Amino acid sequence: MKKYKPQNHLSKSRRAAKSWQKESSVKRVGERGRDERRLHDEDDAFVPLSAVSMTLRLKNIQHKEHLDTAALTEGKVVNSTGRSWIVEYCNDDNLTMQCDCVTPRSIVTENPDSTLVAVGDVVMFKLDDSSGEIEALPTGVIALVQERKSKLARLSAGSAGMEQVIVSNIDHLVILMAAADPFYNRRLIDRYLIAAEQGGLEPIICINKIDLMNEKFVREDLTTYTKQLSIPVVITSAVKGKGVVELSSMLAGKTTVFSGPSGVGKSTLVNILLGEELQDVTEVSRKTQRGLHTTTFSVLFPLPNGGYIADTPGIREFGMWDVAKDELAFYFHDFDAYRLNCRYPMCTHTHEPECAVKAAVAQGLIDEQRYQSYVSILETLE
Ligand SMILES: Nc1nc2c(ncn2[C@@H]2O[C@H](COP(=O)(O)OP(=O)(O)OP(=O)(O)O)[C@@H](O)[C@H]2O)c(=O)[nH]1
Ligand SMILES: [Mg+2]
Ligand SMILES: [Zn+2]
């Protein structure tokens, strides 16, 4: 079995990723409804149908012992076409190659009850040696999806009670919002922070488009994250080039996912960090002040000096996956110093008397908006 070792990537493989994206978006226009569906509501991200239907195919999984791993190649899923996955691997000459892989009806996964294949997954696949006409990628079939070391996941918008993995095997989550156009959403930041902790990711909050807003206001509004929670907050303007060097120095050698609402500048920043126009960018709608969901699939790009960056489709909602009501407060670390002083050990910090958390909010020791986030998430949990 040939092991996958990331190499110094050639811009050829990046161009291949770009051309796949272009091709998939062309297919999308003509084949919407068959290859992919809009899930949830009008504004939510496109989710490839394959990601959803594959989850449902889990009942067909085989056991690992039946696999002939010697005949398989190891690689990393870097892109999706909506019906297949682009897997990066090293060939016998140690060159980084890409293969267009489908998933068969029977597949082995080390991630039960989850999205079957996600961008970032390390997989083992059977390379079809006879494929690979000039100008086309070789084809293959994924046989095994290895256990994810980390992930950005949310409650699936499609099938109730399922986890939807947006990207896997990453180090950092850049929670990207805009200072204006559209104005950042602190409740959504708080949801992302929970997802980062659950998925084993280091969060970085990045507020882009600062050219449209007073920086002092934004910094003061987000003090609780920097001072109380020790989460880095980076302020950028992609169009003016502000803060990009700071952001880039934090990502070197790491795998980072950019996630946030549509139109905040994820693709614009990813292009700048990669030094190439690899991702399409579109104006925010004048009428709704929202992005137009230009990016429709997650894509992983190699960084020039090692590591990867994942650009993802814009999301508006972030349903909490696998958080129990009585565990929620544990994710709010600014409550930690007060939680244990509540009169009732099972205090939910909502209606109970002598609640130390509510008292801390009243005294301005806990940020009022963080407390409101807690209450609003609590209401959505079972
Ligand atoms: N004023 C200003 N505009 C920006 C900045 N960064 C990006 N934009 C603009 O914002 C719009 C949306 O940018 P995108 O990069 O497509 O946003 P996105 O987050 O990738 O959006 P989706 O792919 O739809 O999720 C484009 O018109 C960009 O030119 C910035 O720092 N300042
Ligand atoms: Mg985009
Ligand atoms: Zn309490």
Shape: globular
Q: How many DSSP E strands?
A: 16
Protein structure class: alpha/beta
CATH homologous superfamily title of the largest domain? P-loop containing nucleotide triphosphate hydrolases
Radius of gyration: 22 Å
Oligomeric state: single chain
Supply the CATH architecture of the largest domain: 3-Layer(aba) Sandwich
Figure out the total of helices.
10
User: What's the number of domains?
Assistant: 3
Under CATH, the topology of the largest domain can be stated as Rossmann fold
| First and last CA, distance | 45 Å
Bound molecules: guanosine-5'-triphosphate, magnesium ion, zinc ion
Helix content: 25-40%
CATH class of the largest domain: Alpha Beta
What profile does the largest beta sheet have? Answer: 6 strands, mixed
Overall pLDDT confidence: 82
- Spatially, the strands of the biggest sheet line up as 13-12-11-14-16-15
The fraction of residues in strands falls at: 15-25%
What would you say this structure looks like, in words?
By secondary structure, the chain is of the alpha/beta class. The protein folds into three domains: 11-145, Nucleic acid-binding proteins (OB fold (Dihydrolipoamide Acetyltransferase, E2P), Beta Barrel); 151-311, P-loop containing nucleotide triphosphate hydrolases (Rossmann fold); 325-380, Orthogonal Bundle (Ribonucleotide Reductase Protein R1, domain 1). 25% of the residues lie in helices and 22% in strands. The protein contains ten helices and 16 strands. It has helices at 11-31, 49-56, 186-199, 215-221, 223-228, 244-251, 266-274, 336-339, 356-362, 368-380, and strands at residues 36-38, 46-48, 73-80, 85-90, 96-102, 108-109, 122-127, 139-145, 151-155, 163-168, 172-178, 202-208, 233-235, 255-259, 299-302, 308-311. Strands 13-12-11-14-16-15 form a six-stranded mixed β-sheet, with helices on both faces. A five-stranded mixed beta barrel has the order 3-4-5-8-7. It has a two-stranded antiparallel sheet with strand order 1-2. α3 (186-199) crosses α10. The longest helix has 21 residues, at 11-31. The model is unreliable at 7-60 (pLDDT under 50). Zinc ion binds next to α9.
